[in-house]
Amino acid sequence: MAQAKAVAKFWITTTDLLDHVLKHEKRIQLAEPTKDGRIVHRLVSDLFCRYVQLCRSLERCYDQTLQVQKRAVIQQLLEAGQARMLELRTKLQEIELSEFVYVDGALQEQHLIPDDVLAVRPCYFPARRPDELQALLDAQKLPPFIEPGSDAEDGSSSDESEQPEEEQVPVGKGINRPVVKRDRRKERLQAALNLITAHERARQARVRQTNFRLHPDRYYPKPIDEEIVDVPYEFFYRPGQFMLYPVKRTVYNWDFRMKKKDVVHFAYYAPPGWEEQTVRVASVRWPDAKELALKQQAEDDAAAELAQVEAAKRLEEALERIRLNRAAAKIQRYWRKFNALKAQKKHRFDRSKFLGLFDDYEPKLGDALAVAEVRAARRARQPEFDRSFVAAIADEKARILRIRGPALLEDITDFVRAWFREWYDETLAFDLIPEPFQGGTVLIVRGETLTPLEYLALERQKQLDKLKTPEQKKKEADAMKAAKEREQEKKREEKARLKELAREKRARERKEGKTYDFTEPEFMTNAYLTLEETLARYRKDWAFVNELDNLQDLPIMEWITLDKFAEVHQELHAEVHELLKSERELLQMALCKDERMKYKPPKPKKPPRAKGAKGKKRKEPIDPTADLSVESILNELVERNVLKTCRKRTFEDYIGDFNYAAFERRNRLEQDPPPGMGEVRTILQSYLYGMGPLAAPKPKSLCLVGPPGYGKTLLLEAICNETGSTLFDLSVDTCGPIEPNNMAYFLQLVLRAARLLQPSVLATEGVHRAFYKKVPQSEQPLDPAKLGKHLFKLIVKQLKPEDKVLLVGTCDQPWVAKVGPLKKCFDKILLLPRPDYGSTVLLWQYALRRFPTVPRDLDLSALAKVTTGYSAGQILECARQVLNIRRRMQFGRKPLQVGELLDHFLAGTTPQYPIADKEYEKFVKWHRKVDKLAKQRAKVMRERQLLAEQMAAKAAGAKK
Questions:
Q1: pLDDT digits (tens, 9 = 90+) for 620-666
Q2: How many angstroms separate the CA atoms of 253 and 479, rounded?
Q3: Which residues does 840 contact at the CB level (< 8 Å), separation at least 6?
Q4: Acidic residues bias located where (predicted)?
Q5: What are 380-398's pLDDT values in tens digits?
Q6: The whole model's pTM is what?
Q7: What 8-state DSSP symbol labels residue 446?
Q8: Residues with Cβ within 8 Å of residue 141, at least 6 apart in sequence
């Protein structure tokens, strides 16, 4: 109950936020047109940050709302908000001429941090498939996409590869201590050996016991004096190990010899030679004075001796106390010294932590996990409310049909029959009933059909047309043709004029710069109008609904009744149409018979066919896989090793920081800084909004370019796992066994399966191999070009905006491929950046914190400064190889030093170095050729550099 109130209040707050954002956008539309890109960037980035916050709030409302009718409204708002947010991001990309945008100025104005405007994983991920398709997919035994330890595995994920001698416990499920692999065969042999040994020893014990019982004089020796201690019985038996057959457990190590009995302490028994002596009572005699004096002297001597003994004892105790005090002082001295060193070390630790030299933050995930569990439990109830809503709709429709259906049917029939009578009374004719695709009897009820007076006017015009001469008809036809030609000529002139205006505008923009007008359609898009209309309609419809009273989230039955009443009305119109169509034919036949006219049955009208963009009839492509069932398609793809599974990866596994200096360098210093690894993670997540059940724009294809070890495979697997997509492997190796003639059929089969199992990801690792300029001799048997010939035509071109299918390719040698076909095949081409200092620090922290015994105050700053430029795969592999089990066991006596990690790179048999600037520049140059924004950005930077050189030369000439 409390949670429902909290969700309702949060929704009210979200609607206020939406209203505030729309008002802010209206104020921006009042701004004057400007050519200053910085002003436009500031306004658009401010609006973009607001929409990010709005979409997060709407997403949370959509996730936690159980009332079905309100959830539909929130879904429409969320779809429009996400579309508007992506439109603003695209506008920022056009302004900055880069895929990576920076809005630090808007963050400072709104007092936000970069995490507040990052793309997050939507609540509707991973997407759900129908249960029958998911069960069919789970029944298949799919091979892994990347074999553990294979060369094709991306270097950024090498830290998870299995080692031959030990395997790591997964992070987050316990301490990362090595677990020795069990040798099952050796364990079975050892268990069998132990069982045989136990049986043999038991047999020998039974034989020895029998001999002691049958021949005691031979096997029982004479009693010995020493006490024989009985050894406790221990039977070798492994817990959980079952015997091959029941065995009598015998004490095989028991000594059956007779032991000497302890008869001394035995009751009622006197040992030999022991005699009981009686106590004699002595007679009492009183002592005399001499004896008393002697006794007193003896007592005094004894007291003196006792005093001496006590004095010696006190002296010894004093000496012992001195020794103990000295020992205690020594212990205290060392203890104080230890405490001082410990406090000094803690002070240094706290100072380093305060200065930010390392991060020792350990978040408490208990509260976050509890909140996540509560939200997941509420989210899991949504299907239940959906089923209840569908059942309520069906019951309400059945009730309307049962109660109101007969009366509605009679009313419609009477109205149409009255229409027949009206036509007969005024025109002595019966008009045709419109076809269902035209509107049917609904048009008659609305009065949108031809009236009798209009019918008479048309008939009179037809009679006049019959009286016209051929010359008049030809003249009228020529006049109509000339008017049509004049109209078409006006359209052509208007089109040419608009084209000329657009050309002049582009030329003026190239010469003077682009003018940004906030009232143009590029700013006032359909997404913005949809937000306004949906919010206004919500406030109008829900104005009299108190949402805090409906804490059970029950549907509003009044709206269901109105909708179902209209639907039943439409269905009854369809039923009445066939009945009254027959009656109209009977009436027309009777009328023709009375008027002695020939009856002509009306020609049936066909619905218009859909036409293409140029007015031609659309030809549906022939699908050779139409006759195949879903199960047969899956079986064929599994046999060809196309359907595969991937490891559980997320975008958080792609470790990297943001380039926090990029905004200043780009907008104030007019430089072109490289993006950070964090920006790649953010932009990829923004591309995936359309892979869920909600409608959102998304690219059809995506290509990740970068050197080996930069995380391309990791990002590919993260895309699959974040969206819950089915993975189809379309690499050259997978398509190699397929004949070139069957390649088109194979790709059509893959595309159909991808649409059936959507969301789907078509992965092509090493996509440059499919577009080789010159195929290497070693790969000619695979014929990689047969995949590149059909990839665009049969996959990318066939994808529709509503398809939840994404083509993802990875490439580490793009310069060996043909630029044109590769650029045509992929909508987005991202170049993965090199790790900078911030990303390298995060990578070392992640790599070392996987081992709990590594000191947290290790000097990672210097280590990251030296290793800046090394790929993520090299860093993770270094930590995995250096911090093996043997080295981690030595941490107590030999702390970890930074030099050990550096020695792995430099002191090995083959030293490892980061990618050279010249080699990475090849990737940058190639990316500028294929990416439109990067190409324009490079051109602008060259112009700015040339202008700066000219200004510097002019200033130098003025000084002379």
A1: 567 677 778 888 888 888 888 889 888 888 898 899 888 888 888 88
A2: 127
A3: 864, 867, 868, 869, 870, 875
A4: 150-168
A5: 888 899 999 999 999 999 9
A6: 0.74
A7: H
A8: 638
